[in-house]
Specification:
It is built from 5 helices and 5 strands; from the N terminus they run E-E-H-E-H-E-H-E-H-H. By secondary structure, the chain is of the alpha/beta class. It has a domain of 77 residues: 3-Layer(aba) Sandwich (Rossmann fold), CATH 3.40.50. It has a 3-stranded parallel β-sheet with strand order 3-4-5. Strand 3, helix 2 and strand 4 form a beta-alpha-beta unit.
Length: 120
């Protein structure tokens, strides 16, 4: 967060556009986006959890589904994001390196009463 706002970055997180991320998400919704992926470059790869404050703020602001991205390190992180307003949550390295087996994650989420796409 910079100047009290989250900014949109480009070029792999190297260039700060100065655009307010919440306003950008709202504009994408208005222009007809089907969903928005919120990837916090500060949390990405850290495995300390999603940026729930940012993800939830976007989810409160737009009418379309929001996908949490960047930061998952344990099953509980997925549950926190999905209970907090994200319609979906994605991850990469925890799956690539089998740190969190997908079937185990699905079972964990089901026990938390969190719906899983394709298994409703």
């Amino acid at each position: 967060m910079t100047d009290g706002k989250w900014h949109v970055f480009t070029k792999g997180g190297q260039h700060d556009t100065g655009i307010d991320a919440i306003e950008w998400a709202k504009r994408g919704d208005e222009l007809g986006a089907g969903e928005i992926v919120v990837n916090s470059i500060d949390a990405d790869g850290a495995k300390n959890g999603y940026d729930l404050e940012l993800t939830n703020k976007v989810a409160e602001t737009v009418r379309i589904p929001v996908v949490a991205s960047g930061g998952a390190g344990k099953k509980e992180h997925f549950a926190e994001a999905l209970k907090g307003g994200a319609a979906a949550a994605l991850a990469a390295s925890v799956f690539h390196y089998n740190e969190i087996p997908i079937p185990g994650l699905k079972q964990f989420l089901a026990k938390q009463n969190i719906p899983i796409r394709g298994q409703e």
